[in-house]
Design brief:
Order of helices and strands: EHEHE
Keywords: Ribonucleoprotein, Ribosomal protein
Protein name: Large ribosomal subunit protein uL30
Organism: Desulforapulum autotrophicum (strain ATCC 43914 / DSM 3382 / VKM B-1955 / HRM2) (Desulfobacterium autotrophicum)
Oligomer: single chain
CATH architecture: 2-Layer Sandwich
Family: Belongs to the universal ribosomal protein uL30 family.
Largest sheet: 3 strands, antiparallel
CATH topology: Ribosomal Protein L30, Chain: A
Number of domains: 1
Strand content: 25-35%
Shape: globular
Strand order of the largest sheet: 2-1-3
Structural class: alpha+beta
CATH class: Alpha Beta
Subunit structure: Part of the 50S ribosomal subunit.
Helix content: 25-40%
Length: 60
């Protein structure tokens, strides 16, 4: 489970649930097609699993 994840926002937040918006912001994503790197840990994976329709995830 160690390693890094590249998380990219691929869908807009317009009209989305406030909880989903907060999760995207907590991941550090501010706009469409922005990519961030995070360590692969249960907290990050939990956030990603709640918004799979808004982001893509790649292992680095």
């Amino acid at each position: 489970m160690s390693g890094k994840l590249k998380i990219t926002q691929v869908r807009s937040l317009v009209g989305r649930n406030e909880k989903h918006r907060r999760i995207v912001r907590a991941l550090g994503l501010k706009r469409m097609h922005m990519t961030v790197e995070h360590t692969n840990n249960p907290a990050i994976m939990g956030m990603v699993k709640k918004i799979p329709h808004l982001v893509t995830v790649e292992e680095v």
